Amino acid sequence: MRxxxxxxxxxxxxxxxxxxxxxxxxxxxxTGDMLRAAVxxxxxxxxxxxxxxxRGDLVPDDVMIEIIxxxxxxPDTAKGFILDGFPRTVDQAVALDRLLxxxxxxxxxxxxxxxxxxxxxxxxxxRAKETGGSRADDTEATVSKRLAVYREQTAPVADYYRSRGxxxxxxxxxxxxxxxxxxxxxxxxxxxx
Length: 193
Ligand code: ADP
Fold this sequence. Notes:
Order of helices and strands: EHEHHHEHEHHEH
Bound molecules: adenosine-5'-diphosphate
CATH superfamily: P-loop containing nucleotide triphosphate hydrolases
Shape: globular
Helix content: 55-70%
Number of domains: 1
Structural class: alpha/beta
Number of strands: 5
Number of helices: 8
Low-confidence stretches: none
CATH topology: Rossmann fold
CATH class: Alpha Beta
Mean pLDDT: 93
């Protein structure tokens, strides 16, 4: 199974992806996690990405597309994967289509977790407090920038898939378990659910 989870920062993509990993044994490919690992390891990509991430901007498309292409080509993706945090621009979505085409692969589902944007900033900052603020980009200024970047550059990705009839929306308001149940229901239903 190959899935994309879309949704703004704080929508719960990471949490839901992790649950799907546990349930279906497929891989979670989180570009945010990959970038944070690259920053921690001090690789050339990490060195380049750090300042961009700290201010809440997007890492350039060509860098991200290369990271994803390389990742998808590793053998551990054979059973499938959940993309979490990619594609984040329409150009990334177009590149992903081409990349999958070239490999004879397709996507089973593109699920958008829909939430009320007014709660996001509080959710992210609240989570940062709980976890001791382990993410450098969970400050008030950066969070508001990340949300603005989402509206401007990532919301059109949902439109891109919607216009191709490929998007499923799931209500992301409610508990983790409630949202999980909605995602499961969506996955069980046929492609035209
Ligand atoms: P969020 O909680 O904001 O969804 P992520 O962990 O997905 O955070 O990403 C953190 C940061 O990593 C983003 O703000 C951005 O700078 C960078 N990043 C992650 N994925 C991408 C991507 N696909 N394209 C460009 N930048 C990305």
